[in-house]
Amino acid sequence: MYTYSDVGVSFLLLFISVICCQMLRSVSRLLIPPEYQQYSSEAISTFQLVVGFMEGDIILELLGPWGYATFLFFLVISFILTFDGAADPGNTFFNYLMGNIDGGTALCRVVFQVIGGQFAYPWVRALWRAEMSTPHANQVPFMDSICPSCLQVPLMYGAMAELLATFTYSFVLALDVVGGKLERYVDAGTQVVIIMIGYTWTGMMFNPALAAALTFNCRDHPFYEHVAVYWLGPLAGVLIHSILIKSAIEHGHIDDSFTVKKKLYEMSHKIVSSKSIYSCSLKTAKKDD
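Below the sequence we write its predicted structure tokens.
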């Protein structure tokens, strides 16, 4: 049975993490040369992404699926308002395919996204070990054990689920149904719906950096399975989406390819591909230290 104080602790820890990330962003802008700030932005944003969804596991335990869905919606909105990086290799891959960035830049961004996600786990573990609430204290013993695999379906089905989730999300955003500031709510709502539909299959992350932070090296989850489901699946979805966009440009269904490419590039920095681990890491933790 949850108490308001337990929920309040989760929001407090999340607030502390967001403030620390904002401070890191300010410091990085002062100390890091402008041409390299994109990489620090990716690391910090991915760090914040993983921290947010790890704290979301406590909310899931306290408030159940619908409470978690509500939390997730506002969490994604907070990401959109604070992130200055894509925090998703899928977005980076898309920008590479559309010719907005070169291969070296894309690879460096992905590396820093993965690194940022890896730093989130020890940060959350340190916060939870403060045992500011009973739910957090109860999770501490599990954080030093090896997590079970999130994949609850055969490998091929899991990869297809991640592919379809990524493609659906990208396609809905590319439609630009509402535009303007309302687009952030479409983004958040789309993610919540997709996650709620498919969380029991793969954890429905459709973000390789998030998956690398939370499922890599889990029990009964070999390396090839992780790559096939959580990397090749989402990236294949991005590839299909980019092919459709390019085809629409070439056949004149989209008038100005430069404008479209510019809009999609800007969208990939405003709209964060942040995903949920929903039920995977609840009761368990990450890696064997």
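The chain has two domains: 4-92+102-144, 155-270.
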